[in-house]
Amino acid sequence: MTDTTKQDHVLIFDTTLRDGEQSPGATMTHSEKLEIAVLLDEMGVDIIEAGFPIASEGDFAAVSEIARNAKTSVICGLARAQIGDIDRCWEAVKHAKRPRIHTFIGTSPLHRAIPNLDMDQMAERIEQTVTHARNLCDNVQWSPMDATRTEEDYLCRVVEIAIKCGASTINIPDTVGYTAPRESAALISMLLERVPGADTITFATHCHNDLGMATANSLAAVEAGARQIECTINGLGERAGNTALEEVVMALKVRNDIMPFHTGIDATKIMNISRRVAAVSGFPVQFNKAIVGKNAFAHESGIHQDGMLKNAETFEIMRPEDVGLTETNIVMGKHSGRAALRSKLENLGFELGDNQLKDVFVRFKELADRKKEIYDDDLIALMRTATDPENDRIQLVSLRVVCGTDGPQQADLVLNIDGAEKSTTQTGDGPVDASFNAIKALVAHSARLQLYQVHAVTEGTDAQATVSVRMEEDGRIVTGQSADTDTVVASARAYIHALNRLLVRREKAGKDTREISYKDVG
Ligand code: KIV
Ligand code: ZN
After folding, report:
1. Count of CB atoms within 10 A of residue 275's CB?
2. Who has greater pLDDT, 463 or 161?
3. What distance in angstroms lies between residue 48's CA and the mean position of ligand 2's atoms?
4. Is a pLDDT exceeding 90 seen at residue 484?
5. How far apart are the CA of 372 and the centre of ligand 1, in A?
6. DSSP, residue by residue, 174-195
7. How does strand 409-417 pair with strand 394-402?
8. pLDDT tens string 250-303
9. CA-145 nearest atom, ligand 1
10. How far is ligand 2, taken at its centre, from the CA of residue 237, in Å?
11. Residue pair 129/83 in contact by the 8 Å Cβ criterion
């Protein structure tokens, strides 16, 4: 294990499962959260913020199980500055070998106004809650939310209280992505200089990306003395997201000459976890995203390609393999066996039980019949589809579409809904629209389609398409994803996936799930 006591060591605190999951539509299922937590632990993340245990039964269960399973990482849960929140958080994280409670309160004038506390009352609340957390757990982190818009004197006062009450990590959040690098550094320097006891604790930086400066602000804070960076995979998070883990880790590696700090992250695991988070959150990575975007290592222009052939360093400041991006990696074809598939999937980070392997193998063979070359990305997309729960209430039985220049396009659809087959034929403006109309005809609902996105997984006309669908109903946002060489089938499956998640969300919210009315038009 890395020696984390060294002054040049920066702790990586990943909050993909808490702040990341909070971004509208990025909800992950229980098993998806467990899977991401295992990958974070394996890649060397120092602290995993696994969720917000008071927020829901689901969050509580996920944090508890992640805590039980974690091998090396500290497992942290979030709690507001309330005794009930902190107790619930402790109940979830206490199963970890190395638990942490993270409690926070908004300290800026705008945030103080919400609970209607004056400065003294808030200071008292901080004293009570940090002390309470510290009595439960010997590893407590405290955050003054909206720190970058909090009066400096007041910030010093409350940070000092939290330190006195036993917090060993003080996180300085730029909650609204408002700060700039020079200011971010100055804030940490100011706290280190003015707050008694500041040299005994670890300062953390937590930056949002509203002005596109999150990574720069985090690194500036480190240069000023912060030793924990809070970040998420792919920069997932509220609004414009958070500092991206892959960006800070690679920036510290590649520019170690001017930023002499290191992390304990195994960078070769970055690409795999980035793809998994994109798949489970339904937030595809933008093509030109630093480090993990599809084009991050692609060289289009003639001059660049020529330079690359002569010496890769002419246009690359890091090698694709440094972040786990292997070459074209054609894996298998239709003659590949089950053992080879299991071993390849294990390399990609998927541990499969025998039953799951059986299911994936059938789907792999179907895909191999339709597609000559199967790449890592195809298998990842296949896994995403294959792990959909068998007990989904709505299942696609068959879909046939008629499309072409002479409309209207038509979809013949058969669904299995709660064990009974229903069928319909509908038309639409294009085959996807016709298919969605058919689904709506069988599963009437008021959810609004917010986003429909299609990406080709690999190159070529036989490439699989991954489709993401985001829907909103009564403020609840759900996403669905699927992949298939047939874009229309992938679209229908993604829509059905989202509807199934909507049913689960309604159940959790205690609503009568039967309110979905099934019209038998067949
Ligand atoms: O952005 C923020 O302020 C947060 C806190 C809960 C730390 O996420
Ligand atoms: Zn945040």
Report:
1. 24
2. 161
3. 14
4. no
5. 47
6. ETTS---HHHHHHHHHHHHHHS
7. antiparallel
8. 999 999 999 999 999 999 999 999 988 988 887 888 889 999 998 887 655 555
9. 3
10. 7
11. yes
Q: Which two tokens stand for residue 106?
A: 């908004």
Sign, CA dihedral 113-117-119-125, equals negative
Query: Is the beta carbon of 141 within 6 A of some atom in ligand 1?
Result: no
Take residue 128 and report the two structure tokens written for it.
């009570």
Lowest-confidence segment of 66-70, 172-176, 206-210, 361-365 by average pLDDT: 361-365
pLDDT digits (tens, 9 = 90+) for 485-515: 889 999 999 999 889 888 877 776 664 333 3
* Closest Cα to atom 2 of ligand 1: 175
CA–CA distances in Å: residue 332 to residues 258, 340, 379, 381 = 44, 8, 10, 15
What DSSP line would sit under 349-375, residue for residue?
T----HHHHHHHHHHHHHHHHH-S-EE
Candidate of 104, 217, 232 to mutate for ligand 1, largest count of ligand atoms within 8 Å of Cβ: 104
Highest-confidence range of 28-32, 142-146, 337-341, 512-516, by mean pLDDT?
Answer: 142-146
Amino acid 409: pLDDT? 92
Top-confidence residue, 291 or 338: 291
Q: Whose atoms come closest to the Cα of 111: which ligand?
A: 1
CA dihedral in degrees (16, 17, 20, 21; nearest 10)?
Answer: 160
3-class secondary-structure state, position 103: strand
- Cβ–ligand 1 contact at 80 (below 6 Å): no
Cβ 226 vs Cβ 172: under 8 Å: yes
For residue 146, which atom of ligand 1 is closest to its CA?
Answer: 3
Q: What is the DSSP string of 286-333?
A: PTT-TTTSTTTT---SHHHHHHHHH-GGGT-SS-GGGGT--SS-EEE-
Report the separation in Å between the CA atom of 248 and the middle of ligand 1, taken as the mean of its atom positions. 18
Rounded CA gap, 265 and 214, in Å? Answer: 19
Substitution site in 21, 108, 175 for ligand 1 pocket (most atoms within 8 Å of beta carbon): 175
Residue with tokens 């669905």: 480
Ligand at minimal distance from the CA of 145 is 1
